[in-house]
User: Which sequence fits this backbone?
């Protein structure tokens, strides 16, 4: 998501908060995910943000209504933008959605897709092993291909022509997924659509940065040893300084 935002909105400063101390969100209950997401959002508010993007698909699926109700700034999730992109792409009206157990279990993507196009057939699959593969950097080897075949091989036979990647980690595995599925299935990365929606929202509310200093800040609830490596894999460039910030600081509003 940060990579897409940097490309779409080069004049905006980005404040990123990651919560590796309590990951993975995708295996937790909806109530727990919502509580964590509210605490994470409070931290971002304490840093003076003007828009919050819930880039975690599990948190978007579970917590977006509560965040929108509570927060004094606009809140944007990844589910609705991803659904729009998938509906635009499909020609066969058969879309597959893959994600964590929490995302798939919520039914959020199916609901969002059907609000846009009622006659679409949807195949939803939980594919949790893609997350550790992405974090380990096993993106295009025999292990990644074996897992992708186990999860995805039957989709072409089911007439699916669009695969919605319902997790921030999954685009890193797009090459191996594309090889397994072949050229008849298009892949949807919701981060690009979400970044475009963020630009439209900021412009519509006259919140775009007119110019000046751009400073990206990265905060983590725990300085996990491999975060910088994984983060730079996502970004395709160095991250710079990464700082630790506890959720306790977030809820107390400390600077």
Assistant:
């Amino acid at each position: 998501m940060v990579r897409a935002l940097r490309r779409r909105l080069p004049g905006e400063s980005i404040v990123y908060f990651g919560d590796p101390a309590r990951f993975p969100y995708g295996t937790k209950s909806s109530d727990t995910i919502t509580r964590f997401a509210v605490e994470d959002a409070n931290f971002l508010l304490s840093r003076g943000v003007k828009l919050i993007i819930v880039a975690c698909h599990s948190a978007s699926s579970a917590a977006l209504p509560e965040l929108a109700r509570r927060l004094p700034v606009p809140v944007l999730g990844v589910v609705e933008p991803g659904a729009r992109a998938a509906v635009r792409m499909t020609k066969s009206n058969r879309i597959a959605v893959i994600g964590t157990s929490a995302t798939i279990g919520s039914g959020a993507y199916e609901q969002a897709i059907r609000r846009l196009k009622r006659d679409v057939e949807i195949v939803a699959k939980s594919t949790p092993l893609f997350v550790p593969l992405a974090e380990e950097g096993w993106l295009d080897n025999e292990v990644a291909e074996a897992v992708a075949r186990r999860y995805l091989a039957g989709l072409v036979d089911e007439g699916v022509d669009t695969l919605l990647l319902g997790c921030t980690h999954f685009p890193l595995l797009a090459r191996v997924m594309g090889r397994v599925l072949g050229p008849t299935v298009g892949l949807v990365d919701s981060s690009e659509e979400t970044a475009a929606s963020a630009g439209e929202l900021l412009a519509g509310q006259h919140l775009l940065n007119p110019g000046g200093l751009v400073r990206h800040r990265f905060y983590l609830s725990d300085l996990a040893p491999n975060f910088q490596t994984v983060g730079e894999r996502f970004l395709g460039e160095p991250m710079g300084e990464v700082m630790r910030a506890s959720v306790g600081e977030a809820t107390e509003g400390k600077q």
User: Anything to note?
Assistant: The domain at 2-77+193-252 is CATH 3.40.50.1860 (Rossmann fold).
